[in-house]
Amino acid sequence: MIFGVFQTRVGPLNGRTLMKCLVVKIGTNALTKEDGNINEELLADLTCQVAKIRAKHNILIVTSGAVGSGKSILKINRHDEVTRRQIFAVVGQVKLMSIYSKLFQKHKLHVAQMLVTKEDFMHRTHYLNTKNCIESLFKEKHWIEQKVKEEV
Fold it and tell me: What is the pLDDT of residues 48-66, one digit of tens each?
């Protein structure tokens, strides 16, 4: 797993409020067992750790594993390699996000999914849209928590 830290703006639009954001990259090899299935025990441990530190940090999980997850569901050989990988990825992504959602719900946390490509970082407008979406999700998280506290 790879961990990174960057500052992100949260709160007032004037940009004065900064909060550290931890970026956790989980690769396919870390995510899967030897048999190719998702290592739910590892993900359960990770979600528990995220739940503990999220009060002080925004957490952004960058995950691989959709293809591996799809391979554990489907057994196909009749397409070219690119098509097979795409089929595995689209089927496996649903399973992978379902697992993340189930595990984070145990900590009363919601997950969001953003699919990005390298083009989203190569073109300024795409990059700014991606950045804005991520920062807005972090702002929304704080607003939702505040509303819940006010209603209790």
Answer: 998 888 877 788 888 888 8
